[in-house]
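// run 5 | inverse folding | seed 20
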């Protein structure tokens, strides 16, 4: 068969003829050179096609894998570099001198420190805890018998200065506040102590049953932090009569140590006409001393050693004084507030720790509570009665609360309204605290902490 005739024939017919000849060779029939040549060409085409496909697939896979591998490697390297930079930043911050670190953290808003920055790392939390100790105290607003949560007001320097509101989420259902020490709240429910709470980190400690023979535990207890430690103690005073002898019995609850009440001290009452009145709240000086106010005098107890270290006489006061005088801590000494019979002049005495004598420190000049305070508030109702309660000192100002009892149209009296004021010792001026709302609120001096109870 000539080449010209082969080229002239259709391609499909030529392919069928080649397949027939190939089958005849496979079946053992005789073959010629042309048939062998056809088979060789077909085999070469098949081998060439397979090589080309393999080369393309290898090139394609190599390109794809190398590209993704490079991207993954670059991303991993970036993550490693970022993590290393972050860890280096942590290390740099933790390696800074403590004074410099505290100076930097003091510029950060308190809300940022409490809500986010303390969660960064353990070194940051430790540094923030040290920073909180150096910050000035603020005011905690306790909302009594309401569904809203209480909150903390960050005060910069003065009561009338800038404030930052931080909601802590502590509900009144836990109880009312009895005392606050280094950020820890001692709570009570009517006549019994219930919890010790740190509202910042949302931890609480349930107080076991009280070893108390009488009611009104909120007037006989307080909480204190052992200096230079994170340990807290709850102290409680009771009076007992054993075989005709009256005793002051002091108990302590060491939180996180034994978690049970322990009797630590007994002191005999030598007063002949003792009435068993323990109507004054104990005063904690913020350090290592607790001042117990009794009918006999002032008993000073060491928080760390749990022993009585000193005793002082009571300040000069009328026998039948009502309302009862108030004892507050004035920064470096114990102060005593007493009002005259007309309830318009208030005298402030301070205790000299060395001589043990009370001296007149300041006298709040006569002013009419209902007249002046209601004029400031713009009340358009007649006030039936007022009650003035001194809360605490902050710098040179005294924070006090006035309870207004208005005359009701439908009945003899209406609901009491609480309003907070501040009195400046130097300027002798009274001003309403604007950022404390009017209503069923109570203000406390408070310093946030990250210590667990």
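// decoded
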């Amino acid at each position: 068969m000539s080449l010209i005739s082969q080229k002239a024939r259709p391609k499909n017919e030529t392919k069928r003829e080649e397949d027939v000849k190939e089958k005849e060779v496979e079946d053992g029939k005789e073959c010629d050179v042309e048939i062998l040549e056809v088979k060789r060409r077909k085999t070469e085409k098949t081998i060439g096609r397979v090589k080309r496909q393999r080369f393309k697939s290898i090139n394609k896979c190599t390109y794809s894998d190398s590209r993704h591998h490079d991207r993954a490697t670059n991303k991993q390297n970036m993550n490693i570099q970022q993590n290393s930079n972050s860890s280096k930043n942590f290390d740099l911050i933790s390696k800074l001198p403590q004074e410099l670190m505290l100076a930097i953290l003091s510029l950060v808003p308190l809300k940022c420190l409490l809500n986010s920055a303390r969660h960064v790392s353990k070194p940051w939390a430790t540094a923030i805890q040290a920073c909180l100790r150096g910050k000035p105290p603020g005011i905690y607003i306790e909302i009594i018998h309401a569904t809203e949560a209480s909150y903390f007001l960050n005060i910069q320097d003065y009561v009338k200065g800038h404030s930052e509101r931080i909601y802590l989420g502590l509900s009144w259902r836990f109880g009312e506040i009895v005392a606050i020490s280094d950020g820890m709240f001692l709570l009570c429910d009517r006549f019994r102590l219930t919890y010790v709470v740190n509202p910042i980190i949302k931890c609480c400690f349930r107080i076991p049953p009280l070893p108390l023979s009488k009611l009104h535990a909120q007037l006989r207890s307080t909480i204190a932090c052992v200096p230079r430690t994170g340990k807290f103690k709850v102290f409680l005073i009771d009076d007992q009569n054993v075989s005709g002898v009256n005793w002051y019995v002091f108990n302590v609850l060491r939180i996180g140590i034994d978690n049970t009440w322990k009797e630590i001290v007994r002191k005999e009452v030598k007063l002949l006409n003792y009435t068993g009145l323990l109507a004054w709240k104990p005063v904690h000086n913020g350090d290592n001393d607790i001042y117990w106010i009794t009918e006999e005098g002032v008993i000073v107890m060491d928080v760390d050693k749990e022993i009585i270290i000193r005793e002082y006489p009571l300040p000069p006061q009328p026998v039948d004084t009502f309302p009862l005088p108030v004892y507050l801590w004035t920064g470096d000494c114990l102060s005593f507030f007493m009002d005259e019979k007309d309830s318009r002049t208030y005298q402030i005495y301070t205790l000299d720790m060395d001589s043990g004598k009370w001296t007149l420190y300041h006298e709040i000049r006569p002013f009419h509570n209902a007249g002046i305070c209601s004029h400031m508030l713009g009340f358009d109702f007649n006030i039936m009665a007022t009650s003035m309660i001194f809360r605490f000192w902050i710098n040179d100002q005294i924070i006090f609360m006035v309870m207004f009892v208005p005359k009701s149209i439908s009945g003899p009296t209406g609901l009491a309204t609480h309003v907070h004021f501040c009195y400046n010792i130097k300027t002798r001026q009274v001003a309403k605290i604007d950022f404390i709302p009017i209503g069923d609120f109570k203000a406390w001096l408070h310093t946030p902490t990250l210590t667990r109870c």
